[in-house]
Amino acid sequence: MAWLARSFGRPDYAPLTGADLEILIGSAELISKYPGTHLFREGDPALAAFLVESGDVEIYRGTGSTRRVVSRVGSGSVLGDIAMFGDGPYISSAQAVDRVRVFRFDKDKLLPELAKHPAICLRWLVAGLRQLEATQRRVIHLMHKTVLSQVADLLGEEADAKGEVRLSQITIATLLGVSRQSVNEALGRLRKQGAVETGYRQIRVTDPDRLETIATS
Amino acid sequence: MAWLARSFGRPDYAPLTGADLEILIGSAELISKYPGTHLFREGDPALAAFLVESGDVEIYRGTGSTRRVVSRVGSGSVLGDIAMFGDGPYISSAQAVDRVRVFRFDKDKLLPELAKHPAICLRWLVAGLRQLEATQRRVIHLMHKTVLSQVADLLGEEADAKGEVRLSQITIATLLGVSRQSVNEALGRLRKQGAVETGYRQIRVTDPDRLETIATS
DNA sequence: GGAAGAACGTCGTCGTGGCGACGGTTGATT
DNA sequence: AATCAACCGTCGCCACGACGACGTTCTTCC
Question: What mean pLDDT is reported for chain B?
Fold first, then answer.
């Protein structure tokens, strides 16, 4: 379902610099959330945007059996701004996965402040539009590609410094919007080609270059 | 290729109101283009954004054999702002199809003006983010849907007041990123169900409600 | 009015990927 | 140590749609 996966979470979406933050600090509130608690829920009126200071936050859509994790974002990411600026309800839910500290920007405090500092407003605009363009471009890239290259692409982006990815095949399948079986088959091929090693809930990238080649098939 | 088709052209993307325009009129220039001339070309440095005043403009990507029309937009649409704000080159080309009048906003004149009027800046931001969200939502909707519902959806949106759509099957296929044969088959089924009548380079929607039902299958 | 080109209708073949099923393996819980 | 749930690996079947091919019909331009 969520091909856009990481586009939705927008982990690289950071419209605010340190200097901006200093200016805005007056209209923000640094709050702390325990694991499992919600920053906001899908459908709630969007009264605030959030900037993650530390910890990880899980973005998901739907509830119960239709619950789908869309992304997991960390420090520096901005959440909920689309809904807040757009005057609509939140379009996804955000839940803390561990101890999380976030800045909360209340809408009625933030908007006047933005009006006073057009430069920040402009930067936010630029970041938003850049994201729009990146999303379009990425979707075009991913779209009619084979599951194999999609998986390769995701592994390349999701791997940490040691080349490890700790995701179950089901999670990967959900993120890419394909079936678990297809992911399994793709991983099998990657393994046969020597690009990765697989284990329980864990994948190790052994040949990033080959992975990259396959991703751009 | 261009599943995003109309999202790219963003025909409903109108961040500027009449009042805004009056304020910005000083930094804009109303220019006129003959049919076939270009507003800008893919790859050119993005020094200006455009607001269509009258006439139609064709958006395409690629050149020569890879040229693909991505959208056709008319009065009220804004072009080139993503590239201009993002400091990159234009990501598509824009060509006048008939006599066209557009406002040209030069970057170095517009930016200072926006800094003076944060309200307009904010409105642009909101419009941009809204578009981002709409694109994501739309892609998710369209993506793994059957060709039948994609065609139905497109016809519903593209039909004019008389319910007519003047597009060849090849054009529709390109816009949706599917094969002509599949479009033909889908149209055949729609015809059999009495939702449309088909002719040479032309389709008449006879039952919009049924079309809508099929589109959201 | 005739020729060339574009668009339409239809067929068969083939690859990709979704889905259900089932057994084996790993990790967690007590 | 036993038990249970989650996860992995694999198989077969089936639907959707891409692609090539071919004949027909409609436009357009001499």
Answer: 81
Phi, psi angles (nearest 5°) of residue A192: -60, -35
Positions on chain D within 7 A of a protein C-beta: 6-12, 16-21, 26-27
* Of A91, A122, A130, Cβ closest to residue B121: A122
Domain count, chain A: 2
Count CA atoms within 13 Å of residue A84 on its CB side: 18
For A124-144, the pLDDT digits (tens) are 877 777 777 766 666 666 667
Same domain, A178 and A157: yes
The domain boundary, picked from B95, B112, B141, lies at B141
Q: Is the CB of A3 less than 8 angstroms away from the CB of B139?
A: yes
pTM of the predicted structure, to 2 decimals? 0.68
Closest by Cβ to A4, choosing from B114, B128, B140: B140
Same domain, A67 and A108: yes
Give the residue from A140, A164, A185 where a domain finishes.
A140
Q: Which of B9-18, B73-82, B121-130 has the lowest mean pLDDT?
A: B9-18
Q: Assess contact for A211 and A148: CB atoms under 8 A.
A: no
Length A200 CA → C25 C1' (Å): 9
B16 pLDDT above the threshold of 70:
no
Domain that holds residue B188: 145-215
Q: Lay out the sheet containing A93-96: strands in order across.
A: A38-40, A93-96, A57-61, A68-73
Task: Give the pLDDT band of residue A148 (cuts 50, 70, 90).
Answer: very high
